[in-house]
Amino acid sequence: MDAAVISIWVLRLIFLAMLYAFLWMVVRALVRDLRAAAREPTTELGRLVIVASPSGEPAAGAAFALDAITSLGRDVNNSIVLEDEFVSATHAALTYRGRAWYVEDLGSTNGTFVNGSQVDGLAPIAFGDEIQVGQVRLRLERARA
Amino acid sequence: MSAAPRVTGMRAVGQEPRRFRVAPQLRGRELGLLVIVGVALYVGSVSLGATQRFREQLLEGEPGKVDMTTPADAGLLLIYLGALFLVHAILVMAGRRTDQILLPTVGLLAGIGLLLMERLPQNLAGNLGGLAQTQLVWLLIGFGIIAALAVAVRNDVWLRRYKYTWAAVGVGLLLLVFLFGSETNGARLTLTLGPFSGQPSELLKVILVVFLAGYLSENRPLLVDESTRVGPIRLPPLPYLAPMVAMWAIALGIVVVQKDLGAALLFFAVFLLLLYVSTARISFVVLGLAAFVIGAGLLYFVFDHVRTRIDIWVDPFVDPQGAGFQIVQALHAFARGGLIGTGLGNGLPTIAGRPPIPALHTDFPLAALGEELGLVGILAILGLYLVLVQRGLRIASAAQDEFRAILAAGLSLVIGVQAFIIAAGNLKLIPLTGITLPFVSYGGSSLLANSVIVGLLIALSERAREPLPPPRRVGRLRGLFDRGAA
């Protein structure tokens, strides 16, 4: 075998090796990314973010991890207590049934609104929707992945 | 189009609007991967150049000393890598915290494609000075699209709000092709407008995903509702099945009128996958597969071109010089390649100045790469597509809302499914359907459409600190759910 043939052969192998070097680097990065995501425990089904809260309790920008049933209201026994004078003691409940979220008005005085339209009884909501309870506006978001 | 009014809610938290504040953000991982891509493509190009020079000397007679250091076409490689790093620089300057893996992966795939184009006879196609140069021009435009979308798309309202408009545009494109399309190789899929010609089905796949993401994210609660029962199968309310039936009909229509089996298969597969992604109902998939089997069976008996494809797939060696020629040649190419291939520039004997496999540069690049890079090389290339799909699904799982999640999943699955359809077709795993291998095949429409996909994916991957776009209306759905309220 002469030198030219051998060096061409070596070049070919280096090229293939480089392809796998790239894949190796990428897979390492992907695994690191997935590990980092797994380290943050996400048993939550969704998040509720306070968009606006005139009374300041809870403050706008606060986020709550949601369980399958979350109640909203002024009473201290609610999962999320909203200190707002237009919020009833037990105002509304967020439930996760099957594969979808629902909001239910629990007979509040001032009503519950989804994207500006009033809820009578039960209404399905999706991630990104905005819920208004009293003067408090909240947004349903996907759990952090 | 602007999300400006929605910013007010977030200002209360004390965040200033980020819209016009640009702080460069280093993208170390992307840079590192791009350096590997650069070295790999340089080595590949040198390997190709050395092989070509060596073969020339062999033809001339006594081989002397062969130059083992210069790449095959240094200018082309330099421009290509320059463009890749320029996109990286633009993304750094834009300062968004977006995905850093998509760009290098696409860069490597397209670079391998470019090496293949350099190596094929330059008169196969392309009117900008040969195959490779034309491909390079399209790639540069594609990188421009990726950079522009990755930097500029901050808001998806224009996508989700006008989903029916997008659907109408898609159907309009399809009709245009039905009416004015010209046939190439028996499939009517090229649309010529003056000096420009393109294949709208490539763009259509992006539009389809945008529409499906909008439709599925809005109607998901209804689709998982099971009010209709047919025997053991539980179905959503019948009116909401209509778009799915329409999709099935469109796929059939594409096959019948356009004779484009690949696009039809791609659309239908992506549609079923997205249905599953958004509802997690296996029954939809079973139903869709049943519809597919029925449709495919019908087509097999009614249409000749479908029957020939299936017959070739079952046994190409019945007519190795005629109908089965392409696939038989491809199988031989894979066989010649073996484990590590013959090396770039060393395979593919040409017959009268053309490679033996017809439409090699568009439909059979995998066969060419299989011969020159071998099984090892092909597995690496398929691995790169897997990386693209994984990144897309990861972006989907981290998305803030359903529209973005379904959109990201759909966009990456389009690339993945398309790569699978043509790769499996080349390998005679499934019947061959003419479709491009994303980023590797020669062809402007395909490169541009796939660049749009990657650009959107990078934009969607941003770690969110922005306000969400205006929520969708919910009023229309309320009536139906009042039933279940008690």
Polypeptide structure, described:
In chain A, 26% of the residues lie in helices and 34% in strands. By secondary structure, chain A is α+β, with helices and mostly antiparallel strands. The mean pLDDT of chain A is 86. By secondary structure, chain B is mainly alpha-helical. Helices cover 64% and strands 4% of the residues of chain B. Chain B has helices at 7-11, 28-60, 74-94, 102-119, 131-152, 157-160, 163-180, 200-223, 242-258, 261-279, 282-302, 304-314, 325-337, 360-363, 365-397, 402-426, 444-460, 478-482, and strands spanning 182-184, 187-193, 196-198, 228-230, 233-235. In chain B, a hairpin with a 2-residue loop joins strand 4 (228-230) and strand 5 (233-235). The two termini of chain B are 40 Å apart. The chains are: A alpha+beta (145), B mainly alpha (486). Chains A and B meet through helix 1, strand 6, strand 9 and strand 11 of A and helix 2, helix 4, helix 8, helix 15 and helix 16 of B.
Order of helices and strands of chain B: HHHHHHHEEEHEEHHHHHHHHHH
Order of helices and strands of chain A: HEEEEEEEEEEE
Indicate the proportion of strand residues of chain B: under 5%
User: Which bin fits the share of residues in helices of chain A?
Assistant: 25-40%
**What structural class do helix, strand and pairing data of chain B support?**
mainly alpha
What is the number of beta strands of chain B? 5
What is Rg of chain B?
Answer: 24 Å
Strand order of the largest sheet of chain A: 2-1-11-10-7-8
Give the number of helices of chain A.
Answer: 1
